[in-house]
Specification:
This protein is of the alpha/beta class. It is built from five helices and seven strands, in the order E-E-H-E-H-E-H-E-H-E-E-H. The protein has a seven-stranded mixed β-sheet. The two termini are 23 Å apart. 29% of the residues are buried.
Length: 167
């Protein structure tokens, strides 16, 4: 995987949300695809709608992309909750910072989707300095949105103490 190491393992769960952070490079997407394809997974992910214009939009849709227009409310939580209900298996990848240009705060959308769909959250911590992706501990208690966000942040910070990176 281009000299990168992967630490941890995926949970034995048919449905969950992977939150990848920090989202600081376009390389994050390449790394994510490497892990996904390396493990033989089918994963959907949310990305800004502008990536889905022709011709590159064909590629992003073919690898599981879901376009999101962050400028307007679209009923996305309801739409994704229905998808989780409809499918027997669904892994949804989200960058909880919402952008590479962030102050490190996490948007609530991933936690709202997890709460509504009653699916666990799995942090995936990307460390560019150490060239490591660490799969965190599954967060199964998703009824408290603030608690889910705090747990993701704590796992990310714990990972930062093990191998420093900016969050």
């Amino acid at each position: 995987m281009l000299g990168w190491k992967l630490e941890g393992a995926l949970p034995d769960e048919p449905k969950f949300i992977v939150v990848a952070l920090p989202h600081s490079s376009n390389l994050d997407f390449v790394l994510a695809l490497s892990v996904i394809w390396g493990w033989g997974l089918k994963v959907n992910f949310m990305a800004k709608h502008t990536l889905f214009k022709f011709p590159q939009g064909l590629f992003f849709k073919s690898v599981g992309g879901i376009p999101v227009d962050r400028r307007s409310s679209q009923g996305l939580v309801g739409r994704l909750t229905e998808e989780f209900t409809r499918r027997k298996q669904l892994i949804l990848g989200i960058a909880p910072e919402g952008s590479r240009n962030t102050d490190g705060s996490l948007k609530e959308g991933f936690a709202r989707i997890a709460q509504a769909a009653r699916v666990p959250v799995l942090p995936a911590i990307i460390n560019h300095q150490q060239r490591t992706i660490r799969i965190g501990e599954v967060i199964k208690e998703v009824s408290d949105i603030a608690g889910v966000i705090a747990s993701v942040r704590e796992q990310a910070l714990t990972g930062a103490r093990k191998a420093p990176f900016k969050l």
